[in-house]
Specification:
The complex is a heterodimer of chains A (113) and B (114). Chain A has 113 residues and is an all-beta fold. Chain A is built from no helices and 11 strands. In chain A, strand 6 (56-58) and strand 7 (64-68) form a beta hairpin. Chain A starts with a strand and ends with a strand. Chain B has strands at residues 5-7, 10-13, 19-24, 31-38, 42-50, 53-56, 65-69, 75-79, 88-95, 104-105, 109-113. With 114 residues, chain B is mainly beta. In chain B, a hairpin with a 5-residue loop joins strand 7 (65-69) and strand 8 (75-79). Classes of the chains: A mainly beta (113), B mainly beta (114). At the A-B interface, strand 4, strand 5, strand 9 and strand 10 of A face strand 4, strand 5 and strand 10 of B.
C-alpha cells in the first residue's frame, strides 16, 4: 500500500521568505514522486517529479524538492516567495506496477505582502 | 499541443437526475484517469483506463457511478440519480504508460447538485 502525508493544510509566508511545504510518503517499494500546483479555479499543473535519476529535483517557477529516502520525505522549497505562488500544492506518489497516482491532502500556500 | 479538455466546465443539476461528464485526453495518451476533488476530501481517485479497458475502478463510490472510454480516446463519466454529496469538481487526467510518467490534468467539471 502507498500513502502520502502533507504536514500542514495551510502555510503562510511573507513575500521574499523561504517556502517549505512538507511531504512524507509511505510505500513498500521506492516510489515515483510528484508535486502539483493548483491555482484558483484552474486544473493541476505539474511542478516537478522525482524518478530516481537525481535526489534534488528542480521544477518550474523556482521550486525544487529533495528526495530523502532515510526520512521518506520529498519536501518542496523555494528560496524566495512571490505573490504569484499563492495556490494549493499537492504531493503525489506512484509505484512501479501500479498506475494509480495517490495524492496527499494538499497544502494551501498564502503569501503575505 | 492541446491539453486535456473537459465538458461542461460547470453543471448544475437537480437531485435525482443523471449527468454525463466528458473528457478528451491528450492525443496518444493511452492512460486516462478520473479523480474527484471535494472540499476537505482532497483528490479522490475514481477510475483508471488503459486503452478502452478499466483495470482499476476501485475508487467509484457507488454503483450510481460508471465510466466508459471509446476508441482509446474520449471518456464519459456518468452519475445516475445524483445526490447532494456528489457535488464536487471532477478532474480528468491522461498520461503515457509507465509509472514514472506524470499525469496531465484537465480544468475539471464543477458539479453542483441542488
Amino acid at each position: 500500500a502507498q500513502s502520502v502525508t502533507q504536514l500542514g493544510s495551510h502555510v503562510s509566508v511573507s513575500e521574499g521568505a523561504l517556502v517549505l511545504l512538507r511531504c512524507n510518503y509511505s510505500s513498500s517499494v521506492p516510489p515515483y514522486l510528484f508535486w502539483y500546483v493548483q491555482y484558483p479555479n484552474q486544473g493541476l499543473q505539474l511542478l516537478l517529479k522525482y524518478t530516481s535519476a537525481a535526489t534534488l529535483v528542480k521544477g518550474i517557477n523556482g521550486f525544487e524538492a529533495e528526495f530523502k529516502k532515510s526520512e521518506t520525505s520529498f519536501h518542496l522549497t523555494k528560496p524566495s516567495a512571490h505573490m504569484s505562488d499563492a495556490a494549493e500544492y499537492f504531493c503525489a506518489s506512484k509505484i512501479q506496477g501500479a498506475q494509480k497516482l495517490v495524492f496527499g491532502q494538499g497544502t494551501r500556500l498564502t503569501i503575505n505582502p | 499541443g492541446a491539453g486535456v479538455s473537459q465538458s461542461p466546465s460547470n453543471k448544475v443539476t437537480e437531485k435525482g437526475k443523471d449527468v454525463e461528464l466528458r473528457c478528451d485526453p491528450i492525443s496518444g495518451h493511452t492512460a486516462l484517469y478520473w479523480y474527484r476533488q471535494s472540499l476537505g476530501q482532497g483528490l479522490e481517485f475514481l477510475i483508471y483506463f488503459q486503452g478502452n479497458s478499466a483495470p482499476d475502478k476501485s475508487g467509484l463510490p457507488s454503483d450510481r457511478f460508471s465510466a466508459e472510454r471509446t476508441g482509446g480516446s474520449v471518456s464519459t463519466l456518468t452519475i445516475q440519480r445524483t445526490q447532494q454529496e456528489d457535488s464536487a469538481v471532477y478532474l480528468c487526467a491522461s498520461s503515457l504508460e509507465g509509472a514514472a510518467t506524470p499525469l496531465h490534468f484537465g480544468p475539471g467539471t464543477r458539479l453542483t447538485v441542488t
